[in-house]
Amino acid sequence: MPHLLPDNPDPARKRLVIFVHGFGSSAECWSPLLKLFKEDPDIAGVFDLACYEYPTPWFNWRFLRRIPTLAEIAGGLANFLESAAIDRYNEVILVGHSQGGLVIQRYLVDKLSRGKVEDLYRLRLVVLIATPNLGSTLLSTTRKLFSLFFSNPQERTLRVFDTQITEVRSTITERVVGARGETAVDWPIPVQCVYGMEDGVVVEASARGPFEDDTVLRVPGDHFSVIRPAGRNDARYTALREALLEPCGHRCVYEIDLYDIRITIEPIPGGRLFEFPHAGRTIHVQTDNFARIDRTVKFSRKNRCNELYLLRYGTRNDGYIIPHPSHKNEASSQDQQVYEDYGTSFTFGFHPRLSESFGLLVEVYKGFEEGHRDIHFHLAPSGKKVYFKTVRLSIDLSAYLKAGWTVSDEPKLYHHLLDEGHSQLCNQRRFGQPVTARPADQGDVWTWELTNLRGGVIDAVWDLARPGGD
Predict the structure, then answer these.
(1) CA 180, CA 219: separation in Å to the nearest integer?
(2) Which one of 245, 263, 283 terminates a domain?
(3) Nearest partner of 453 among 395, 373, 374, 393, judged by Cα
(4) Are 353 and 301 spatial neighbours (Cβ–Cβ below 8 Å)?
(5) 191-196 and 216-219: which strand pairing?
(6) Are the CB atoms for 162 and 232 separated by under 8 Å?
(7) Strands (E), 108-160
(8) Are 116 and 182 contained in the same domain?
């Protein structure tokens, strides 16, 4: 069957939005909306657009043909997503209108029930537009009468209390909406519901289904006009546009606009012995380097996860750190006691607030001596799911260069999707291909920006040569 693929696919740079039409319809129903999206630079600049099309006739007039079931259509969607043209994209958004939303949900349930959650990793968002999550009562008596003569498995799934859809809804409620984390059977995915306030086919209660009120958008229009906005100023268009650009979030996924990491390292000529009063004793540190590591996390205005967020930092080799959290520390007493005991590791805990920034500045003594000029950060705190729009990291070595040192190995940054937690294995990680640094005005500060990350680990490594080659 034909599918509408991106005109000029760009999987290396863009994300992909796939549109799934409803019962008795076709991909043509999306034409007015897709035209506006392609003319909108904010959408066209970051998204490729594609349609998944499937057979959905009202009646079957051919003896040797049958109408496919919802499960078969969802299986076709899975094949489409795994095709060579689509599989290259790192991030996918699924948008379904009417029955198309049920197709998407059945696809999710099939993956979850088979334990193939890894196939859902790149799924950023699901948008359900006028989807009959609780069925549709419109012309139900007439539809049932026709079904006595023309059996249609797709029409049955649109009925109120259909057992197949009840099972799908139950699984979505428990293992997607209610997921507490990424497991072999649960996968938290943001789901945005949209319905027309004049829709007589799918009423509000059915369009909302099991989804939470703060993920529901109410717009003008009926069941069909809801996806046919008249222009870019139409409320229907602006609502769908924002849904793509600013996903609604999930209660178990942190939505972060910016994670900014700034590392400044200075030499201490000849080295020096420092004495730090700490918890009733004195800690002695001999070091030839000092660093400031300043990390700031700014949460999205669409963040819905209010669980405790943790920023951790630990030094090594008998060093010492002085932490400066931006807010009251809400980390557990056990986490806070670790710093009191050793002075080498600190945990800053806080509950996110919309559009607000939280930061942790750490002064580090003896963190980056010869043989240890590297640093890494686990992007997902405590194994929770996080979505970062931008991760920015900079390393400032200007103090070394002013003191006559040279950079023998320029700083390089690596991102690893797999995060197996902090352990000794962190020192044995294979780096692979480095991330390209952003050009700077001066050659003593290296800066990188990574976008649309779902956690993982970032490693930065570099090396320096002493003045005169000593």
Answers:
(1) 30
(2) 245
(3) 393
(4) no
(5) parallel
(6) no
(7) 123-129
(8) yes
Closest CA to 299 of 336, 335, 350: 350
Residue 116: both structure tokens together: 């193939």
- Count CB-CB contacts under 10 A for residue 269: 9
Phi, psi of 311 (to 5 degrees): -110, 120
111 in a domain, yes or no?
A: yes
**Per residue of the chain (470 residues), what is the pLDDT tens digit?**
446 677 777 777 899 999 999 988 899 999 999 999 999 999 999 999 999 999 876 554 454 456 678 899 999 999 999 998 899 999 999 999 999 999 999 999 999 999 999 999 999 999 999 999 886 544 344 334 334 334 545 444 554 445 678 889 999 999 999 998 888 889 999 999 999 999 988 889 889 989 999 999 999 999 999 999 999 999 999 999 999 999 999 999 999 999 999 999 999 999 999 999 999 999 999 999 999 999 999 999 999 999 999 999 999 778 999 999 999 999 999 999 999 999 999 999 999 999 899 999 999 999 999 999 999 999 987 667 899 999 999 999 999 999 999 999 999 999 998 787 766 556 656 677 888 877 555 579 999 999 999 989 999 999 999 997 65
Question: Residue 307 belongs to what domain range?
Answer: 254-469
**Same-domain pairing of 411 and 350:** yes
Question: Does one domain contain both 221 and 348?
Answer: no
Provide the β-strand partners of residue 192: 127
Question: Which residues, 6 or more positions from 254, have their beta carbon under 8 angstroms from its beta carbon?
Answer: 299, 303, 305, 307, 309, 352, 384, 385, 386, 387
Q: Which residues contact 392 (CB under 8 A, 6 or more apart)?
A: 258, 259, 260, 261, 447, 448, 449, 450
How many structural domains compose the chain? 2
Model confidence, pTM: 0.89
Q: Is 37 left (phi over 0), alpha (psi -120 to 50) or beta?
A: alpha
Q: How far apart are CA 315 and CA 366, in angstroms?
A: 8
DSSP track, 188-214:
---EEEEEETT-SSS-HHHHHTTS-GG
Nearest to 195, CA basis, from 230, 239, 161, 156: 239
